[in-house]
Amino acid sequence: MPSHDPEPAFTTRPTIMARRGVVTSGHYLASQVGLEVLARGGNAIDAGVATAFALTLVKPHECGIGGECPIIIKRAGTAQPFVISGQGRAPRSLTIERVRELGLRDIPGTGLIAAATPATVGALTTALIEAGTLRLAETLGPVVDLARDGYAVYPAMRTSIASVQARIARWPSTAEIYLDGGVPEVGRIIRNTAWADAMTQLLDAETRRRGDGREAGLEAARDTFYRGPISDRIEAFVGPARTEGRTPDGEPPAALTLDDLAAHRTTVETPLAFRYRGLDVFKCPPWSQGPVFLQQLALLAGDDLGRLGHNSVEYIHIVTEAAKLAFADREAFYGDPEFVSVPMDRLLSPEYNRERRALIDAAHASRELRPGSGAPAGIRPAFEDERAEGDTTHVDVIDAEGNLFTAT
Known about the structure:
By secondary structure, the chain is an alpha+beta fold. The protein has helices at about 30-40, 45-60, 95-100, 120-130, 140-150, 155-165, 165-170, 170-180, 195-210, 215-225, 230-245, 260-265, 290-300, 315-335, 345, 350-355; strands at about 20-25, 70-75, 80-85, 150, 190, 270, 270-275, 280-285, 395-400, 405.
């Protein structure tokens, strides 16, 4: 018998080792786009932006050009990353009073009323301005080509389309792309020329400002989306549903307006950080759920998880119970820091988390939501009554110089 450990079996998620850069994402075509950008001399931010744009095309059930895209970037040679807030703001007219007028207890997880200001384009163009080296034509451009040439339906995409077939059928422009002749079989080529045409308008705006420098071109493309032809098309689509009171699928009306789009600004922020066993872990501020992971680490900081054995029953129990406590605090305390005071210093403090950690029973799983002291009354889980189909997807890129881009 050999004295050394046997070679581990190859899996579909191998450890990636490279000298010139790494791109990982939720779809191989998106990763390929990012790798090609690296090969052409772009840095990790350029490649990350290209990959993220591609994901909005090839993973329509998990993200979209009308969605959100929180980003963390670390420049080579710097210790402190920075955050680009790819989180869209709620429409100004979507007040608590308006939601109650519509007979709703919560904002639904789907439908036009759930739409915030689309933040992805602003976040990705801002990333290029802040830390990229290439123009939009060199990052979004290859994705436009992919939209016109088409890509193959894959099993997860087909399953998702089938699960919401009836809903898609009520929206003709969407059905034309994804339900032409019924739920597409795996392998069918999807071409999204409408997406390509819209994104080409951004590229054309950049080209018209090319003589004014790279940053001016990127700003022109961004303005085309939020204060130009694209925002006008968005208003033309959601405006009638907003004024007529109901959407074609019978759901509550849109709240988003042209003024919401015009007012959108992408912010560059400082991440939250927590040091865990010698590692500095960074997350987006509490307008996202990123700090939940930091609090999980704070709750587990006093445990030697290694002694329990990776994925042993005891290990999984402690990690899961810590997650429940952290998510309960998310429900109770998180929100937009511009409007509410989120006590992150306390939520990540050793004293608070020792108090919270004492609630974990080594022999029993908790069943109730248990936020910490100071939580408002009546807290309940998000999406208690319904779940929106789909999820999110992710991209990470590191280049040879040590630049890092990560986005959800």
